[in-house]
Amino acid sequence: MRKPDGKIVLLGDMNVGKTSLLQRYMERRFPDTVSTVGGAFYLKQWRSYNISIWDTAGREQFHGLGSMYCRGAAAVILTYDVNHAQSLLELEDRFLGLTDTASADCLFAIVGNKVDLSEEGPGDGGQDGGHGPGPAGVGAAPRLPKQVQPEDAVALYKKILKYKMLDEKDVPAAEQMCFETSAKTGHNVDLLFETLFDMVVPVILRQRAQGPPQTVDIAPCGPPARTRSGCCA
Amino acid sequence: MDGFIRSRSRPAAAMMSTKAFTLVPAVEREQLMGDRERVSLECVECCGRNLYLGTSDCFVYHFLLEEKTLPTGTATFTATRQLHRHLGFKKAVNELRAASALSRLLVLCDGCISLVHMLSLEPVPSGARIKGAAAFALNENPVSGDPFCVEVCIISVKRRTIQVFLVYEDRVQIVREVSTPEQPLAVAVDGHFLCLALSTQYIILNYSTGASQDLFPYCSEEKRPIVKRIGRQEFLLAGPGGLGMFATVAGISQRAPVHWSENVIGAAVCFPYVIALDDEFITVHSMLDQQQKQTLPFKEGHILQDFEGRVIVATNKGVYILVPRPLEEQVQGLLASHRVEEALVLAKGARRNIPKEKFQVMYRRVLQQAGFIQFAQLQFLEAKELFRSGQLDVRELISLYPFLLPTSSSFTRSHPPLHEYADLNQLTQGDQEKVTRCKRFLMSYLNEVRSTEMANGYKEDVDTALLKLYAEADHDSLLDLLVTENFCLLTDSAAWLEKHKKYFALGLLYHYNKQDAAAVQLWVNIVNGDVQDATRSDLYEYVVDFLTYSLDPDLVWTYADWVLQKSQEVGVQVFTKRPLDDQQGSFNPDDIITCLKKYPRALVKYLEHLVMDRRLQREEYHTHLAMLYLDEVLQQKPGANATGAAVTETRAKLRHLLQKSDSYRVHFLLDRIRGAGLPMESAILHGKLEQHEDALRILVHELADFPAAEDYCLWRSEGRDPPYRQRLFHLLLALYLGPGPSSTELTVAAVDLLNRHAAEFDAAQVLQLLPGSWSVQLLCPFLTGAVRDSIHARRTTQVAVGLAKSENLIYKYDKMKLKGSSVRLSDKKLCQLCQTPFSEPAFVRFPNGGLVHTHCAASRHTNPRSPSPGART
């Protein structure tokens, strides 16, 4: 079995679409999924690195496993459902604590899934879309007003930084790390994973480099003396 | 009866048809406890052939296991009872562990681990034991390198305490005691790492450093924990929701969990499977894909353990062995139910359990079989990848298609067969659309494969099959295949191409097989319409081209008449376009000319080729060509007015030839031309004979073509000296001014000639010729030019005279200088060369003043080595 070089963990309440996101990305399809039991993972080759992506179970029953899955993770994808405000709150209440075991420079991405179900296009602001024109007729599901706005995710991201006592200057900007996706249509799914892979590679390299020498000697080592060749004239 | 239910009812889905294990009884109840109803089996240990059982009534039984394989391939076990021994307590035997290196059996009973001999079951004389143990585990990855001790880790009866012991043959030694945050309930150990089930969570504890790592919480009140070492630094744990969780000593999970039932009792590992036991079933999951692979009904089981790869399951009363089915059989079973992915994963997983060579053979075969399964489902992409990685002998695939393999092919399908299909028709059940798709796939596959090493050794079979496919499908690549390097077998391919009326391609095949005659004959037949093949509309040109570059002269001669009959102009290319070095040997121009006698237009082309392109100077060719031109011109002459353009063209060619060539027989032509009314041509011929007056007369008097006359003068004087040219121009002028009825045109022509070519005339002569009546005005340009020339000539001459005079003066001066001084000879003057005095009055003086004897001066010229007196000062 190939040893993964880095780990990314998907966390989030049950039924927000973690497994679907992963399947959309890895298998390019959107099958009906059943509630994940325990966890599952994929190995993704990204450039020369093997990145394992763990899909976790959102059910309360398996909550205790989260810490172990997150141990040493290079990135955590916190997933919520844009149509369920509670799912965003759960991230902070239940899931953020699980990430304590992740790597110190772990990256966080906040992903609002299922945008295909809401009325507004992705990225649109405004709360008053509820009584707009009727269902725009994608499938049979009537479109509902989006319950979670991107700003809410950004706010959560900033909270996480505070919780982790990270300086905003040292980490990727919130706008870069908050995504709205649809596993059903594939909207932003590749962007999400591939943005993250690209960010995770330096983390992997840093973790590798952090072997014995923890500090880098930056003392000037003097200009290289130009030695004249000793050839007789 | 015992708990082993032989019912066929299977709860699991049809997906789980893998038969990874068979359950075989090992020790029956009667062998163990006879009719003592209340006694039950408490623990099992198996070490090599030794099987130990501990009972609830404090007995230890020793059996020897013997494995037999029935002719049907299934294994059976017989257990022969050896000694048994009562341990002297009223308690049950809790655990048994063999330490074969020490020949000791560790027996946990009544909170105490005692050491007994493995065979006699006698306690060690020293009475060494470990007291206060609730449970214990052997370290299979021991830290100490001592082979004569085992490391034992116990859960102490002391609260929240783990102790580590070294156990020798007849003594024990405690090495460490660690306390745990909660009461431990189960333990497994690997190196320094303890994996512990505490009352609310699982942890990893490094007993050397004391560092601990939480794994995950669980509830010990709801279920019994399971902690099972499955390999180096990795454990299997019973998690929430019936999960079998994997965890490494670093506290991370590297495999996805397997999903057991909630009430799982025990777990064991037999790579690549994880086996679990609950009240009713034994379940088998694969560690490779986490899928459940098999379910065996098994009631009242309460022990499941693996011992060095042997999995034993027991009820209270009986012992059974889970015998792994041979891997091949499992894989074949999966393949038979078309579960390709699983079969591949399983086969690949065996890599570390089987010797490399054997594995590769096995795995390759599985890949090939899987490829055929995908192929049969028309999953061509997957099939291709599998065939490629399985290094399939492509003939296996080709042989599925009827008639594709050459009749001469020695191929026979591998045995046992890689698939169940006789041929493509059976596979597709006659669905023509599917057949077409399969053929298209084979085309692309063979095309990819033919240049790789996969085709090595049977390139003939591959290329012939590809040719047949292309021909049948009317595919463009057929021609590409035949014109590039290929290994198509001639007889087989020829028959096939003929059958599919691919005659042009067949010709290419003949050509590739060095049978050009057959190829050309075939193509000729197509052009003639004897056989039908519309592959090339320009086949005639193709044949001409082919013959042009053919190295076989006989072939060219054979078909020369045919190509020329088709088209003289195109046909003659077989001679004219032939590479030059090729034209020497068998293509003698005389032979060709003989051959072309019947084809005048071709002959003209050929002679033009010889004369113009190859610049051969043989008189015959030039004369012949000129004659042919002339004939044509003469032939067309009567209708000259009607087809003016054509006449002009041929005449232009004729004139061009007459002017440029010096090799034809001028007199001969002149005779032919005489009276034919071709004055211009006559003029050229006269010109060639230097009969300028005749030539010019024709031009001036017959044709009155004055520009042509002027051009004639220029043409004929090309490369000659100026007087020659002057002579020609004077000749022309004389003609213009000559006696006879002078006409205005001639006068004008004369004036123009003089004015235009003033420099070509001697003005003095001209002036004498001119009639006195002409005005100066008329000849102004000529006269101006002439006067200028004359003045210029005079002045240049004057300059030359002046220069010559001054040069003369310089020489005179030098002469005077040299004569100016006298030389006095005396006894003191020595010859500069021989350094002796002068004895006679004659001497030589060098321009620098040096004096030498005359004979010395003479010898100096003959002896270059003597010092040059001029160099001395």
Automatic annotation (TrEMBL), chain A:
Chief location of this protein within or outside the cell: membrane
Cellular location(s): Cytoplasmic vesicle, Phagosome membrane; Golgi apparatus
Gene Ontology BP terms: cellular response to type II interferon; endocytosis; intracellular protein transport; phagosome acidification; phagosome-lysosome fusion
Magnesium keyword on record: yes
Keyword Hydrolase attached: yes
PROSITE patterns: RAB
Matches recorded under SUPFAM superfamilies: P-loop containing nucleoside triphosphate hydrolases (SSF52540)
One Pfam family recorded for the sequence: Ras
PANTHER family: DRAB5-RELATED
Protein name: Ras-related protein Rab-20
Organism field: Sus scrofa
UniProtKB/TrEMBL annotation, chain B:
Alphabetical UniProt keywords: Cytoplasm, Protein transport, Transport
Domain of life per record: Eukaryota
Keyword Magnesium tagged: no
GO terms of molecular function: SMAD binding; transforming growth factor beta receptor binding
Pfam families named among the record's database cross-references: CNH, Vps39_1, zf-Vps39_C
Gene Ontology cellular-component terms listed: CORVET complex; early endosome; membrane
Gene Ontology biological process terms from the UniProt entry: endosomal vesicle fusion; endosome to lysosome transport; intracellular protein transport; regulation of DNA-templated transcription; signal transduction
InterPro entries given in the database record: Clathrin_H-chain/VPS_repeat, CNH_dom, Vam6/VPS39/TRAP1, VPS39/TGF_beta_rcpt-assoc_1, VPS39/TGFA1_Znf
Subcellular location: Cytoplasm
Residue spans of the CHCR repeats: 577-741
Residue ranges annotated for the CNH domain, each copy included: 38-311
PANTHER family according to UniProt: CNH DOMAIN CONTAINING, TRANSFORMING GROWTH FACTOR-BETA RECEPTOR-ASSOCIATED PROTEIN 1
Name this protein carries in UniProt: Transforming growth factor beta receptor associated protein 1
Biological source species: Sus scrofa
